[in-house]
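Deliverable D4.2, example record:
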Amino acid sequence: MFWASADVRFVPNRTASLPTVTTRFVLAEDSYLMREGLRSMLDLAADIELLATCEDYDELMEAVEAHEPAVVLTGAGRSRLDPW
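Output generated by the structure prediction step:
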């Protein structure tokens, strides 16, 4: 059986910090409204670094080559991001 008095409290060690991992993103979306909405949401995340936003396939390829992101977030469906 575990028992503790009311005077015993758990105090987290705030001096010890865990290493942070930042994920590098390139955002590609041909719709301006969607692209800017996603950009504003991604900017709020502390662990995401938004490297570039693109609206067509050529911009996306240049951004991927220049920044080498870990993640490319693209829109779905047929759009200006489709090279075919």
